[in-house]
Amino acid sequence: MTDPTTARAGAITASARAGRPRVGRADWLKRGEIILLAGPAIVMFSGFVIFPVFMAAYYGFFRWKGFGPPTDFIGLQNYVTILTDQLFLSAMQHNAFIVVLSLVMQGPIAIAFALLLNQQIKGRSLIRVLIFVPYVIAEVIVGTGWGLMLQTTGAVNDFLGKIGLESLQADWIADPKIAIWTLMVIISWKYIGFAVILMLAGMQGIPDELYEAAAVDGASYWQIQRSITLPLLGPTIRIWAFLSIIGSLQLFDLVYIIWGQYVADTAGTSTMATYMVREGRLTGNYGYGNAVAVVIFLISLVIALTYQRFVLRRDTEGALTEKPGKDKF
Amino acid sequence: MSQVALTSRGRKARRPYGGTSRKSSVPWGKPSVYLIATVLIAICIGPVLYIILGGFRSNAQITTDPSGMPNPWVFSNYTEVLTAGTFWQQFGNSVISAVLTTVGCVSLALAASYVIARYNFRGRNAMFSLFAAGLMFPMTVAITPLYILIRSLGLTNTLAGIILPQIGFALPVTVIILVPFLRAIPKEIEEAAMIDGSGRVGFFFRMVLPLSLPGVITTGILAFIGAWNNYMLPLFILSDPAKYTLPLGVQAFASQYSVNTAAVLAFTSLSMLPALLFFSVFERRIVGGLTGAIKG
Fold first, then answer.
1. What CATH number does domain B86-260+267-295 carry, 3.60.70.12, 2.170.150.20, 1.10.8.640, 1.10.3720.10?
2. Residues B182-218: tens digit of each pLDDT
3. Which pTM does this prediction carry?
4. Closest-CA residue of chain A to B16
5. Which of A236, A129, A203 is CA-nearest to residue B21?
6. Per the omega criterion (within 30 degrees of 0), is the bond before B72 cis?
7. Nearest CA of chain A to the CA of B132: how many Å?
């Protein structure tokens, strides 16, 4: 009865018996290492990032003051309220204003300065350090310092008076018509260095051969900048714009520090985030505050994904949703 | 967030670009270039100098001449802040928070990135995507539930209550910057290490750590500055002034001594100096980390 079938079955059993324990042990060892090495990061990340974000979505369905477990389930009512909440809608308009103005104010200025600095001049690295300083300083310090300088009796008005521009003196912070422009100037001051450094880096990535070829062809400086530098700077500009948009949508610290906890909505500078904190923390409407947070998140997400889909796709192949393919990196 | 987008783009961009600085002819003469650069620098560091110099003035000087220079120089504002103790306590809290956040974040991220970069297993892509998706989760959205979570863990008013979330929120950027570094280590080195009898874990400590050091330093600096400047999380979690970090301390000091502008300026400049010193020491790393990433 030693037919081929039995023989084959016996061979399989034998090989399995010989092979499996060794492979299995190595496998378990590998799994153990994976859990041991990646586990802590995943636990920390899930616990303190993913979980709270999902809880925000959950709390957003309740009328809840933050004490005890949330019980008063009201479904989407918070979200309906948000759509008609004048304070939120004006905060949203401020955010939109900040997004647009950040792009049109900072972008061209940063590109101009980067073009200027992108040449052999003495002390270029020192210049780079110095223009980067505002970006490194904490928002609190920026807010406190600028807040003091922009008081009606502060250094800015005094300086304007000294150079004979009394007519330009203003109540920079408290005048609601001016306040958002004041905020824009402070934001531009803080983030322009970052933009310049990015643009410079982008320019340095452009191959010299292109410039040499253009120079041989007799192109003028402006022709070269317009047809080589700017097009090839495109990816850098688009990434910078993306970061600027997302940052503008999340803006909190500066406004909260300069305009305070409650003044922000009357001062004309409230943002979605300061309004969220005001509702969630200061007036104790936790459920509503969380719904506001979810709306901020959704707005950012939709804008980010749309931008990525239509603008960034050709540059990044998905900076945010990137999967580590075999031959990537 | 920024660094990530840049890094992934940078990797792609590395291939065709190799240029460094160049001499292009500019229609303006050089003096005007320096003039404009000087104006830019003045705008950038003017307010910073105002804060620092303002600390050397008296309140009377500031009231009568808000935009003037110290005349005479007053040192008492600085000495009072430095001898009062509040500053040092908050400085200490900031150091603890930033150092532990940095160490925790980088070590956890390095271990996880090692797994993602060099282990072959199902769910590896999912793990990477999980961290990548975390970039889209701003602390703003999570802050209220985070506060409730920290409260139910009994960690309000403790530095642990801000360090743990700071680590969590710094992980995505760190993992995403480190994975390419770890993946770039050639397979041959790993095989050689295996032949020499070192296991995967031994290989990690002997080869991976040293080779990924540039990435570790860059991400460490980013995590440190992020934690040092963090305002929103301490604002929610810390209510006891003894536990305040410097950003909260600056704000508390500014509102408590609002009439004493000179003292506020002195306190503010002192709390800014550590970050500035840290930045100037590691400037090449920070700017290099940002620009190197985009340059490839």
1. 1.10.3720.10
2. 887 787 877 787 787 777 777 777 777 888 888 888 8
3. 0.81
4. A207
5. A203
6. yes
7. 6
